[in-house]
Specification:
mainly beta, Immunoglobulin-like, five-stranded antiparallel β-sheet
Length: 165
C-alpha cells in the first residue's frame, strides 16, 4: 500500500507530545486542502468575538530543517500550549494538515518551497472568518512516512517530524 502515513506519539521528560491516529478525514478533499494558499491581505489581524486575550494563539514563522538522520521537521513558535488538529491525506498527493484554532493573525509566508526528499513544500492560510490557521505539508508521493508531532514546552515550539518508514 503506497503512501502509508503513520502518526506516532511519545512522552518524554520536558517534551509534551500529542497523540494522533492516522485516518482519512471524511468530507475533506484535495480542493479543500488547496485552499492553503493565501494572499498578503490575509496577514491582517482578526479577533473573533467571544474569545479573551488569553484564548488567542500567536503563531511564529514556520521553519524547515533536516536532521542528520534524515528526519525533516517543520516547526513554529506558539505563545502558549495548544493542541492543533493534525491529520493526513493519503493518495497521489499525500499531505499532512495542521489546523490551529483561535489564531488572531498570521504574517508568515503563504508558501515555503522545500523540495527535499520527503517534504516538497509547506503552505499556510489564515481562515479569518474562523480564526483558524491551516498549515499543509505537501509530501513526495510513492513513499511511506512516519509522522511525529512534538511540542517543546520550554521553548514554546511545535514541530512535525517526518521520516521514511
Amino acid at each position: 500500500m503506497p503512501n502509508v502515513i503513520s502518526i506516532l506519539s511519545v512522552m518524554l521528560l520536558g517534551l509534551a507530545v500529542m497523540a494522533f491516529q492516522p485516518s482519512r478525514p471524511s468530507g475533506n478533499n484535495e480542493k479543500e486542502m488547496d485552499k492553503a494558499d493565501s494572499s498578503p491581505n490575509d496577514a491582517r489581524p482578526t479577533k473573533k468575538i467571544g474569545h479573551s486575550q488569553t484564548d488567542i494563539i500567536v503563531v511564529g514563522d514556520i521553519q524547515y530543517e533536516i536532521e542528520k538522520n534524515g528526519t525533516e521537521k517543520v516547526c513554529f513558535g506558539l505563545n502558549r500550549f495548544c493542541s492543533p488538529k493534525v491529520f493526513s491525506i493519503e493518495g497521489n498527493n499525500p499531505k499532512i494538515v495542521i489546523d490551529i484554532k483561535n489564531v488572531s493573525s498570521w504574517k508568515g509566508k503563504s508558501m515555503i518551497p522545500v523540495n527535499a526528499l520527503l517534504i516538497r513544500q509547506v503552505r499556510s492560510h489564515l481562515h479569518r472568518a474562523h480564526n483558524k490557521l491551516r498549515i499543509v505539508l505537501d509530501l513526495s508521493p510513492s513513499m511511506d512516512y512516519v509522522v511525529e508531532p512534538l511540542f517543546y514546552k520550554a521553548e514554546g515550539v511545535y514541530c512535525i517530524a517526518v521520516k521514511r518508514k
